[in-house]
Amino acid sequence: MPRPSTPLLSPDRIRSTALAIIDRDGLDGLSMRKLAAELGVQAASLYGHVRTKDQLLNDIASSILSAVDVTGFTVDWREGLLRCARSYRAALSSHPNIVPFLAYGPAGRAESLQRLDLLHGALVSAGWSRREATMIAAGLMYIVFGSALSTFSSGFSADPADYSDRYPHLDRAHLLPGVARELDRDSFEMALAAFVRGL
């Protein structure tokens, strides 16, 4: 039987299929057995490409976070923070189910550590102490991850009767679910601008 013209398994195919499972079923929904089934192979076949599930998750994380833009730090530390935060949030918002894994920090991901090193170096070069630079990077991540993990409007009912009598200042809260995307974006931008201005 002739060999297939394209390999059945490749790192890109494994990562993209695993990410599709995470997007669909959540982080806990990914297992090596389920991944193998979706790829049409035996689970043992995966281990020739990825040693562990954690390695696979770190590879997926590196792929997602490759979209984070740190070029602004060559212009100005403020511009760097703005570009970095916006592109980081966009990357996370595209795959919210993997955000809890990414929230643990850069771990051993070389690309993430390189971006963090560049950010930290730009802040120290601009006159911030090393401790302050660390705090600024942490503060930026709190804003980015907080905005990517949840939507403010998710817990609000669309029924005006739930608010109008008992909560007079929330008489328009029933409209929030309909403008969730816009509200989340604008709230993130306001928090980010306030953070950078405050610095």
Automatic annotation (TrEMBL):
Coiled coil stretches, renumbered: none
InterPro entries in alphabetical order: DNA-bd_HTH_TetR-type_CS, Homeodomain-like_sf, HTH-type_TetR-like_transc_reg, HTH_TetR, Repressor_TetR_C, Tet_transcr_reg_TetR, Tet_transcr_reg_TetR-rel_C_sf
Look up the DNA-binding region in the UniProt entry and give its residue ranges: 31-50
Residue ranges constituting the HTH tetR-type domain according to the UniProt record: 8-68
One GO MF term attached to the UniProt entry: transcription cis-regulatory region binding
Domain of life assignment:
Bacteria
> Does this UniProt record's set of keywords contain Methyltransferase?
no
Give the matching Gene3D superfamilies: Tetracycline Repressor, domain 2
Protein name in the entry: TetR family transcriptional regulator
Species: Lentzea aerocolonigenes
The opening ranks of the lineage are: Bacteria, Bacillati, Actinomycetota, Actinomycetes, Pseudonocardiales
